[in-house]
């Protein structure tokens, strides 16, 4: 499995299982657990979750999927901004660990910037790391100005920034992604299929036929072709989980990449960071 190196030297896989909106409907829990279990059996090396997803239930489902496994995937979770005070971050992490049935989270993120001073959150991250509760820490939904603020505090240890990034939402390429690449900070792309909307785009379907893959696989393969980018597609369907995993085998020629740029042009000016 390909990976990106974090500033700490740890390796983060380029592909993981997302869990956004899991745990919101008790009737779907069996299906969601089955999808995660199946994905881990296929070889997915990472799972992304958060205390926000299903108000903790998604983390519980992840914990159930991990139970009894000899080899654990790379685990990412996030703290709510309203819990991101010095004491609140530590307490939130402890709750997440309990739900995940783990002793350590590989990467712990501030879900988005709220009213709490970043200094407090980062101090809590430092304490959690020293205590062995987390291995690395980072942020999510941070635009360039936010990342520059964090850089003044983190001593080069912010491991990643998880943002909305895909073929149909390329805003981060103008300034945020180049800034992160210069500092060897990987970008974690969420909603890589734009919540399914990308799959309905005629140019993507046409090019996928030329490549010999599905539109979803082409969209994911394009992200894999971007240096310093990892992604976490979410699905509760076994076939889609399998389809997404197979995107790792799709190879894109320079001509296909140029065609994708023509169909989904990169930004020519600064754009506000989009969030879902």
How large a portion of the residues is in β-strands, by DSSP E? 15-25%
What is the residue-mean pLDDT, rounded to a whole number?
97
Q: How many beta-strand elements?
A: 10
Main sheet record = 8 strands, parallel
> What is the oligomeric state here?
single chain
- Strand arrangement within the widest β-sheet reads 3-4-5-6-7-8-9-10
Going by helix content, strand content and strand pairing, the class is alpha/beta
Q: Any idea what the radius of gyration is?
A: 18 Å
Termini, distance in Å? 28 Å
Name the overall outline. globular
Percentage of helical residues? 25-40%
Which regions are unreliable across 5 or more consecutive residues at pLDDT < 50?
none
Order of helices and strands: EEEHEHEHEHEHEHEHHEHH
- Our count of helices gives 10
Q: Could you explain the architecture of this structure?
A:
The chain is α/β, with parallel strands linked by helices and 276 residues long. The chain is 39% helix and 16% strand. The chain contains 10 helices and 10 strands. The strands form 2 sheets. An 8-stranded parallel β-sheet has the order 3-4-5-6-7-8-9-10. A two-stranded antiparallel sheet has the order 1-2. β7, α5 and β8 (158-164) form a beta-alpha-beta unit. α1 packs across α2 (57-66), α3 packs across α4 (118-130) and α7 packs antiparallel against α10 (254-263). The radius of gyration is 18 Å and the shape is globular. It starts with a strand and ends in a 13-residue tail after the last helix. The model has no long low-confidence stretch (mean pLDDT 97).
């Amino acid at each position: 499995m390909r990976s990106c190196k974090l500033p700490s030297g740890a390796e983060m896989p380029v592909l993981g299982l997302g869990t956004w909106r899991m745990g919101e409907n008790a009737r779907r829990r069996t299906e969601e657990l089955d999808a995660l279990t199946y994905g881990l059996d296929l070889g997915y090396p990472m799972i992304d979750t958060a205390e926000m997803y299903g108000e903790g239930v998604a983390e519980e489902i992840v914990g159930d999927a991990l139970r009894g496994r000899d080899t654990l995937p790379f685990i990412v979770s996030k703290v709510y901004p309203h819990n991101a005070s010095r004491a609140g971050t530590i307490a939130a992490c402890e709750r997440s660990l309990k739900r995940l049935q783990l002793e350590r989270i590989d990467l712990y993120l501030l879900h988005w910037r709220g009213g709490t001073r970043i200094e407090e959150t980062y101090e809590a991250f430092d304490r959690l790391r020293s205590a062995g509760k987390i291995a690395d820490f980072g942020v999510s939904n941070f635009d360039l100005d936010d990342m520059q603020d964090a850089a003044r505090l983190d001593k080069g240890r912010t491991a990643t920034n998880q943002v909305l990034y895909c073929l149909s939402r390329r805003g981060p390429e103008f300034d945020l992604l180049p800034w992160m690449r210069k500092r060897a900070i990987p970008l974690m792309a969420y909603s890589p299929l734009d919540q399914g909307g990308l799959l309905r785009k005629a140019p993507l379907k046409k090019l996928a036929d030329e490549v010999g893959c599905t539109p979803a696989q082409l969209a994911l393969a394009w992200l894999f072709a971007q240096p310093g980018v990892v992604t976490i597609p979410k699905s509760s369907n076994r076939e889609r989980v399998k389809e997404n995993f197979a995107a790792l085998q799709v190879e894109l020629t320079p001509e296909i990449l140029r065609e994708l740029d023509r169909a989904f042009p990169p930004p020519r000016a600064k754009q506000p960071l989009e969030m879902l």
